[in-house]
Amino acid sequence: MQFVIVTGLSGAGKTQTIRCLEDIGFFCIDNLPPALIPKFAELCYQSKGKIDRIAIVVDIRGRNFFDNIFASLKSLEDMGLKYEILFLDAQDDVLIKRFKESRRNHPLSQGRRIEDAILEERKRLEDIKSKASHIIDTSRLTVRQLKEEINKIYIMGEKFESLIITVTSFGFKYGIPLDCDLVFDVRFIPNPYYIDELKRLSGNDKAVFDYVFKWDETNKFVEKTTELLEFLIPNYIKEGKSQLVIGIGCTGGRHRSVAIANKIYENLKNNNHTVLISHRDITKDIAGDGK
């Protein structure tokens, strides 16, 4: 029997996660009081295999009942039942934005600021997070991307990598993205902007991509950068990092940085990393005032 306990921060995506699990055949229960977990597991055992994939959401909505979670987990262990904990997390600013957009109150708000409620919730969830089998940071994930991550774990059985990597192109003239962990400057590569037939295209167009990658220095840069990232990624995972944002910058963020970001994204994806791509400034300067 596969028994998954879904928990995590309010607003981090537990509802979407339980829907994804239900879609792939899990019997799901939302907001089950922790004290009832052992009894529910016992009932599932008695189904004689009719219910063999179970997912339950347990979170801070249970208020004081949530404090019984560890006693319940101990009961499952005493029963010899193996379980997994799937923990959903997100950055504070993302959680605040989600609550404001949904116009819902945080379960612990009680008239307080959302920031304070999130801080208290993080403290109360520290111990359960430390026991998690999988931690997914949904800060940058769309619903479709979250579903892909769930499917990787529970359908394809792929080795789960908790680090979500975002490769983003940008233009230095518009400033370095504030959330970048690593920044690479590719302005040393010949600029397609000065080629009339490429000027109004972007790095997503084959003609621009081919121009950027016809230079030896471009291919060497991508090769060495990919090698560096493959060295860094397992060490970031070991350190507990859940998000890695890699910035690739050229002057305007439309030609060179886009093409190179796409190639690095492709390399990391082919190496089975969880990776996203974004192009912050690709739609700017379309009229052509400089790259």
Task: Explain the overall architecture.
This protein is of the alpha/beta class. It has two domains: 2-154, P-loop containing nucleotide triphosphate hydrolases (Rossmann fold, 3-Layer(aba) Sandwich), CATH 3.40.50; 164-279, no CATH class. It contains nine helices and nine strands. It has helices at residues 14-23, 37-46, 69-78, 92-102, 114-130, 143-154, 206-212, 216-239, 256-270, and strands at 2-8, 27-29, 53-57, 83-89, 134-137, 164-171, 182-185, 243-250, 274-279. The strands form two sheets. Strands 2-3-1-4-5 form a five-stranded parallel sheet, sandwiched between helices. The chain has a four-stranded parallel sheet with strand order 7-8-6-9, covered by helices on one side. It is elongated and about 70 Å long. It starts with a strand and ends in a 12-residue tail after the last strand. The model has no long low-confidence stretch (mean pLDDT 89). InterPro entries: P-loop_NTPase (IPR027417), RapZ-like (IPR005337), RapZ-like_N (IPR053930), RapZ_C (IPR053931). GO terms for molecular function: ATP binding; GTP binding. Residues 1-154 form the RapZ-like N-terminal domain. ATP binds at residues 8-15. Pfam families: PapZ_C, RapZ-like_N.
